[in-house]
C-alpha cells in the first residue's frame, strides 16, 4: 500500500489522455456539507473524465457533521448538479451510502433522479473480475483496536482537518501547493496503520467468503491496492485529504487517479478472475467475461 501524493492546484492535466476511456469510476468519502469537501477538484475531474458508470461509494453527504453545522457552498452545489446531469445523460450512477450518510440506507432499492441507491454491489470488470463494492464501515467490528482509541482517533481527525484548512490558507498566500497534515500524521501513526491493515484483511476475507475476485471500498481515507491469496483489495481514497478516485479502463484494468485524471498507481494485472476457465487446446487460463450485474443486500 502506498500513500498517494495529494495534487497541487498548479499541476498540469497532461496525464488525462494517458488514462484513455473510463468504463467505471469509483468515488467515496466526499463529505458534502462540510468545509473540508474538495468539491471543486472533483468537478474538474468529472469534466475531464466521462465514465459509463459511476459508483458513489459512501460518505458522499456527511449527515453527521451537518447536524452541527452545514456547509453547502456554490462549489458543492455545482458538483451535485454535475452528477445529476451525468445520470440524466446516460451514465449509470449507483449510490452506496456509508456511515456518515447511513440514513439513506432506508432508500436502498430505490431510484431517485436516475441514481440507484444500493446497500452494496457486485461489479464485473471488462476483464471478468467480480468485485464486491461497499463503503467499508461494516468491517469496523473486525478491527482489533480498543474502541476508545477509535473514538479518540475520529475526534482528533476532525480537529486535524480544521488545522489543515488554516495551514493551507497560509500556504496558499505563500504560493505553496496543498499539503495534507492529516495524511502526514496518519502515515506516522502505528495505530492508524494497524487499523488500515486489519481493515484490508477483513475486506479481502469477505470477498473470499463470497467467492469473489476482490473488493472495492473507501471509508478509511487511504487509497491503494493489495493482493493476498489471489484476492484484490482496492480503496479509492477520499475527497477531503487526497482527492483520489478509482478508475476502470476499457480493458478492465484498475487505476488510482488524481483530480486531473493522472494515474497515480495501477492494480496488479496478474490477479486472475476466479471465473477464469482453462482452454483445453492451449492449456492456459482464459477470462470468462460476464455482463455487469448489481445485487442489493
Automatic annotation (TrEMBL):
GO terms of molecular function: metal ion binding; UDP-2,3-diacylglucosamine hydrolase activity
InterPro entries recorded: Calcineurin-like_PHP (IPR004843), LpxH-like (IPR043461), Metallo-depent_PP-like (IPR029052)
UniProt record, GO biological process: lipid A biosynthetic process
Listed SUPFAM superfamilies: Metallo-dependent phosphatases
Alphabetical UniProt keywords: Cell inner membrane, Cell membrane, Manganese, Membrane, Metal-binding
GO cellular component assignments: membrane
Protein name: UDP-2,3-diacylglucosamine diphosphatase
Organism: Cobetia crustatorum
